[in-house]
Design goal:
Number of helices: 2
Order of helices and strands: EEEEEEEEEEEEEHEEEEEEHEE
Radius of gyration: 21 Å
Structural class: mainly beta
Distance between the termini: 34 Å
Number of strands: 21
Largest sheet: 12 strands, antiparallel, barrel
Length: about 325
């Protein structure tokens, strides 16, 4: 699972960089279900009764203040409701599956943007740069009950795939661009990269069990705080009140961070999706739905598995969960 990579602010629904509104409110909802296990690009074809099923639903509320000369500021406040249905962290593989939940505030983001060219009504293209901060407001130590057996349960931190935050203060970098070929056809591009300098968050990866000695040696007994990224590019087709969108979306976690160390457990990899969308535009309100359908995925060997391979001489790579699609649906108000 990819945390703090909402991509919600990347759905820029204004006709171009110019807007007569001083304030905008974007309420975006994202749903994603992960249930398929991958190593590299290979589907492990986990039997249905053994699947670990993660469901993630996030509502991201972004308030934007548009300033003069192409400057703007965004404050994004996410709320999440997540669940994980699995057996591994309960009685163990092959036992009865149980569900753990999280609900609450995620990691708040504040970003400042600047269009490199001053926005105008007739502008054919522009490039926007963004720089911001992600605060560790989401509870990365969120706890729920884990079942050792039918009669005994223990309160412990949940799996990182459903945690409300990652525990790190991050640096947000963005680049957004558009170009109109005709009044009805335009290109869009978005690049988002979150730099997380903090190394680990101190949360155990083994829930209520004692960590294995090899995990301690390789630091896989504690969760990492990885960088995350998202790339989008495609075309919009405008039909007055309706607009259609088609493009590609790639999001993931790198093996190594740009800044800081890479200790702790992470699941590096990426999902490449075909991302169609539809927008309905009114004077002050726009509604939209995007459904990225995953066409390619790859789970990469993380640094702890690489070290374990070096120590034992046996190649090791952990499985990472993925799904088939995600859904973004939201509404934008020009205030």
């Amino acid at each position: 699972m990819v945390h703090n990579i909402s991509g919600f602010g990347q759905y820029n629904l204004t006709d171009n960089a110019f807007s007569t509104s001083d304030w905008q409110l974007n309420i975006n909802n994202r749903y994603f279900k992960a249930f398929r296990d991958f190593k590299g690009a290979d589907d492990q074809k986990t039997p249905a009764q053994d699947e670990s099923i993660v469901r993630s639903f996030t509502t991201d509320i972004t308030l934007s203040r548009l300033l003069k000369n192409g400057w703007s500021m965004d404050l994004s406040i996410p709320f999440a409701s997540n669940s994980r249905f699995a057996d591994k962290e309960h009685g163990g593989p092959g036992t009865e599956r149980h569900t753990t939940h999280t609900f609450g505030l995620g990691d708040i983001r504040f970003t400042v943007y600047k269009w490199l060219l001053n926005p105008s009504v007739s502008q054919k293209g522009n490039v926007q740069l963004g720089l911001g901060i992600k605060l560790p407001t989401g509870d990365y130590k969120y706890q729920d009950y884990f079942y050792k057996n039918d009669t005994t349960k223990i309160l412990a931190p949940v799996n990182a795939s459903i945690a409300l935050g990652d525990g790190g203060t991050g640096i947000i970098t963005e680049l957004n661009t558009f170009y109109f070929f005709k009044s009805t056809i335009s290109f869009y591009g978005n690049f988002y990269y979150l730099i997380n300098p903090r190394d680990q968050n101190g949360v155990s990866t083994s829930t209520w069990r004692a960590p294995a000695s090899l995990d301690i040696m390789t630091t896989a007994d504690v969760y990492s705080i990885p960088d995350v990224y998202s790339l989008r590019a495609g075309f919009n087709f405008d039909f007055k009140k309706f607009a259609l969108s088609a493009g590609l979306r790639d999001e993931g976690v790198p093996v190594h961070d740009l800044i800081g160390n890479n200790h702790g457990l992470r699941r590096p990899g990426h999902n490449l999706s075909f991302e169609p969308g539809i927008i309905y535009k009114m004077k002050k309100i726009s509604m939209y739905v995007y459904v990225p359908a995953i066409i390619s995925r790859r789970i990469k060997q993380n640094p702890t598995d690489a070290l374990a391979t070096e120590i034992t001489g046996v190649y090791r790579i952990g499985a990472g969960g993925s799904g088939d699609y995600s859904v973004f649906a939201g509404i934008l108000f020009k205030l």
